[in-house]
Amino acid sequence: MSEQPRRRVSILGDIFWAIAAVAIVWGGFAGFGWLQSLRVPVEPAPIERVVQSVETAPLTPFTDPLPVRGEGFIRADRALGIAAQVNGRIVELHPAIESLGRFAEGDVLFRLDDRAARASIEAEEAELASTQARLDLNETQLRRVRTLRERGVASQDRLDQLESASTELRASLASIQANLQSAQVTLEDLTVTAPFAGAVLAQNAEIGSVVSPGQSVAEIYTADALEVVISLTEDEAALIPGLFSGEAAAAQVSARFAGRELVWAAEVSRVDAQLDTGTRTLNVAVRLLGGLPSVSDRLPSGTPPALLNTYANVMIEGAQPIDVIAVPSSAVRDGGQLWLEEDGRLAMRDAQIVHIDAETAFMQLPSISPTASLIVSSLDRPVDGMPVTVTNRTALAAAE
Q1: Cβ distance 292 to 270 under 8 Å?
Q2: Residues 6+ apart with CB under 8 A from 289
Q3: pLDDT tens figures, 117-149
């Protein structure tokens, strides 16, 4: 084929492909327009978020003293066993020992047979009188011999003998006086008196029993000076007013007897000077103020007194901080945060934990809105300021 026909064929091919390309492009636009005509328009619609429901409790300021609690056993302030310092046979016992009753300070609790001691005292007194008489006679003779010696009538040997005899008699007199004092002390030791007013806890000997030194005859205690020692943490102890300055903070001691609740008025009496090495707690003694307790229901036996070794609960009146509310411990969120409902929205408020008493937490939260209430239920993904609805608002209104 010649050059000219070949060129004509090439041009015709280019024109064909150009027309095909234009047709394809036009077909694409036409198809897009057709699809556009088939499209259903989508209108935007607002998404409704679910408002979470919450349960609330009223926020009431706590104005009473913070309760600081502990437990322990009722015990006597002083308890000891009474015993004689010498051997002897018991010839007298205080009636309180046999009846486990009460006695006054200075009462004779028991007496041992003192006949031998009194005989020893009488013998020493007689010996003392005899020696004193001999000394007086010797002193009279000594004065006379000294006078005669000055005149040159008496000998020096006679004077020396009398002076030596006086010295010996004075030494003998001092020894007898010491023996007499020892016999008197022995006589006093045969009688044991009460070192304080109290009551008898146990009797360990009878009249006629022979006891040895240190053998307990009875156990006594301060019946009107009972106490309960409780262990407190440092934070709890810090809440008691005047604990380390000697003030007697008011307290209350309660115990159960035969299913009845007994309550005594009490006060803080002392605090240990050291922490317990094992528990790192501080021991605080709470003294019962005496008298019979108040009782929830009278017993046929009458109101029982405070019995030693009774397990008791103690509540000490702590400080009265300001801006404090009492909330359930379960309502305290992580970090001491409280969730409040204010005007239909969640308010996350940081509060300071002042004290926790079992299931109650005392929180310091200043500037509380009068319309706010405490959220006690849980929330799913809580956000500060999110809307909430209260499910128990009717019950709260009725309670108010």
Answers
A1: no
A2: 264, 265, 266, 267
A3: 899 999 988 998 998 898 888 888 888 888 887
